[in-house]
What we know:
This protein has about 325 residues and is of the alpha/beta class.
Amino acid sequence: MKRILIITTGGTIGSTIENGVISAEEGKLLAVALYKERYGGADITVLSAMDILSEELEIGHWQKLLCFIKGIAPDKYDGLIITHGSDTLSYSSAFFGLCLCGLDIPVALTAADLVPDDPRSNAVENLRACVEVIEKFRRGVFTVYKNPRDSFCSVYIATRIREADRVSGSFSSFDGRPFARIENGRFIDEPFSMTIDELYARTRPVILPDIPAINGSVLLVRPYPGMDHSALMLKKSVKAVLYITYHSSSAASRGSRSALSLLKRCSKKGIPFFLCSFGSSQTVYESSDTLIKNGALPLKHISDEAAFAKLILALMLGADDIYGFMQSEIYCEYI
């Protein structure tokens, strides 16, 4: 029987409803209790690291959870499940995919669409699929979630899951399809997006002897038509800018309010300015070419969430060559 550690952090999967308000205070054990009641079988230990709704997530919470995981010696278990809120699940998945891929046990992150005692909730199904992931794989970091209207749970490589759609609540993968699917407690017999051996071969974990405090922050900028970039403040705490380009990897580069104006301000302050992200095309638009010629650093084939998480990790580690660090694959974050 597998020994599984579940670490709760709050979110809907660890919440209850009282007087119409969802609160991450009292429900952290309910989903696990319902899972054991329905399926039993696994040797499960539950520990609580924090109790927050994931929209309140800050980088300090990631550091706290990393310290928590290190302190409980996870390798004494056969697998680790982290329950989380769905709003920022894709960001935490990317960060912990990068940080925990060196563990010798599988790690699964999951969330829920509704509180566990709501009969429509996917909480218990998601936990069941996480257990199946731990049974199936010997290591790796995955995010597991049953999207609305699906009859199966999708298993995503943690560094490739994208934020859920605001209308349907469905997650997706940056490479267009999940790593695997699980239905009724069994893996569906279909080709994965890559083989598990390929995934292991592309895992080059970073060494985290200690969990350092992050010295500075990443400013993520998502443009829109007519955006006044001069309105953005570059405080002393900003150590890197991650600029999310339009889908064709372009951004406004003309005029005093353009992305170019922000880039020039960053250059004067010595703040690296990353463009996220570029595809496989050998050509770029004039606007992108202008930004790159003025010092912008292009990132290729990486999701917004993974790029943000990796920049945070680079700052935590105090990487001397931050662009070189960003270009070196850690855990399948590049497609």
